[in-house]
């Protein structure tokens, strides 16, 4: 059956999904694709000191071509996750909420939207988007399991109106809506992501929040990274959950990177299987009291995630979350948002399983400010990589963008 022609706009919970909503000849309001295609771009300092003895060379990604996936001036759209369904079909999941006078990550109308592309991301069928987790959906990292089955790690808050904190049982927040942690869930679609039935949701941990997508290990287990205060931790830590029955039941958490109140906490872990039983994890750091601020830390497991090495600082500055992909030639691709000037979506490559990352950062897309990041990538059969992320345009609308590029 032929795919329906993607429509230019649609209405979802009162949000018109129109990728051209920002208007103008360059609706993303960012550096043009033409500028990126010329080779190296000037980003202020072309190298920066990321640790005491490392010089990082910053270059534009090869053959970068930009696209705007979704910009809507009435909507804050962020935290995209991309998955390939084979052939030319892609799914993207993202958080949407009404645009506010300030950046907030909570809203009573926050929801997860799932859109489909039939042409490797050139166009998106926004009018027929699916939705889930109304009332506080935060992030949804998907995993294609084959035969039309798609699972996903859902992070959710419970959110109340500003004036109803007491009755809702939530503490008042300085800059956010009153909210409570709803925790992490496993969601399942049995029909290629067209619907997400409530009866197919399972609780993973009400005290933890997923961020990066889960992975399916070589032994068939589903491994779901998350973060929170659980598993014996007394401060925010990176956690790992395992399911050996397709997501029906989940293990208690394994502490991948336990936070230390006097040093730093860990969150938003990105997980990758390097070889059977050999896992790599990168972690965002917060509440840093010792060492560099805003760098990724890494550690490994050699027993399928049951035990982990001590975390080590990579020296890679971000301020957002790490996302990992093992590409066809065996290298490990790291993509991330750099939330310091010069702001950008970046990629780095490792040829030794994430122990080192070379001396070059590849700029996928310059960004105007630090409201950006949370990347997700797939590699196509022809070797190209498609990386999606979120960021603001020049008029302050936050939306979803994508970059097709080639590995150096």
Explained architecture:
The protein has 408 residues and is mostly beta strands. The protein has one domain: Neuraminidase. The longest helix is centred in the N-terminal third of the chain and has 4 residues.
SSE map:
Blueprint: E1 9-12, E2 15-18, H1 33-36, E3 47-51, E4 54-60, E5 65-70, E6 75-84, E7 90-98, E8 111-117, E9 130-132, E10 137-146, E11 149-159, H2 165-168, E12 179-189, E13 202-205, E14 208-210, E15 215-216, E16 222-228, E17 237-243, E18 254-257, E19 265-275, E20 278-286, E21 295-301, E22 312-317, E23 323-326, E24 332-338, E25 344-350, E26 360-366, E27 373-379, E28 385-392, E29 398-405
Parallel strand pairs: 4-26
Antiparallel strand pairs: 1-2, 3-4, 5-29, 6-7, 7-8, 8-9, 10-11, 11-12, 12-13, 14-16, 15-16, 16-17, 17-18, 19-20, 20-21, 21-22, 23-24, 24-25, 25-26, 27-28, 28-29
């Amino acid at each position: 059956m032929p795919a329906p022609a993607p429509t230019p706009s649609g209405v979802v919970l009162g949000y018109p999904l129109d990728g051209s909503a920002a208007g103008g000849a360059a609706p993303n309001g960012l550096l043009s694709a033409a500028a990126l295609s010329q080779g190296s771009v000037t980003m202020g300092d072309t190298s920066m000191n990321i640790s005491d003895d490392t010089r990082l060379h910053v270059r534009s990604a090869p053959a970068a071509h930009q696209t705007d996936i979704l910009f809507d001036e009435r909507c804050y759209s962020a935290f995209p996750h991309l998955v390939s369904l084979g052939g030319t079909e892609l799914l993207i999941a993202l958080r949407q909420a009404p645009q506010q006078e300030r950046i907030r990550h909570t809203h009573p109308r926050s929801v997860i939207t799932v859109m489909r592309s039939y042409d490797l991301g050139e166009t998106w069928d926004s009018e027929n988007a699916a939705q889930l987790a109304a009332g506080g959906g935060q992030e949804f990292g998907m995993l294609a399991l084959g035969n039309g089955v798609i699972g996903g790690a859902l992070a959710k808050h419970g959110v109340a109106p500003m004036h109803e904190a007491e009755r809702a049982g939530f503490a008042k927040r300085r800059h956010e809506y009153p909210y409570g942690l709803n925790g992490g869930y496993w969601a399942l679609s049995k029909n290629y992501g067209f619907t997400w039935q409530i009866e197919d949701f399972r609780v993973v941990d009400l005290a933890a929040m997923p961020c990066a997508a889960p992975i399916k290990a070589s032994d068939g287990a589903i491994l779901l990274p998350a973060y929170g205060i659980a598993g014996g931790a007394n401060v925010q830590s990176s956690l790992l959950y395992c399911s050996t029955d397709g997501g029906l039941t989940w293990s208690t958490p394994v502490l991948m990177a336990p936070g230390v109140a006097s040093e730093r906490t860990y969150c938003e872990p990105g997980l990758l299987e390097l070889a059977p039983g050999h896992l790599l994890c990168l972690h965002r750091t917060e509440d840093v009291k010792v060492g560099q601020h805003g760098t990724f830390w890494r550690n490994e497991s050699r027993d399928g995630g049951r035990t982990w090495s001590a975390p080590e600082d990579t020296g890679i500055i971000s301020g957002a979350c790490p996302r990992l992909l093992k590409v066809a030639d065996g290298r490990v691709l790291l993509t991330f948002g750099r939330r310091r000037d010069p702001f950008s979506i970046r990629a780095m490559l490792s040829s030794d399983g994430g122990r080192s990352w070379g001396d070059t950062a590849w700029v996928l897309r310059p960004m105007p400010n630090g409201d950006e990041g949370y990347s997700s990538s797939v590699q196509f059969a022809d070797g190209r990589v498609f990386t999606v992320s979120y960021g603001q345009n020049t008029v302050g609308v936050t939306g979803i963008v994508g970059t097709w590029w080639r590995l150096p």
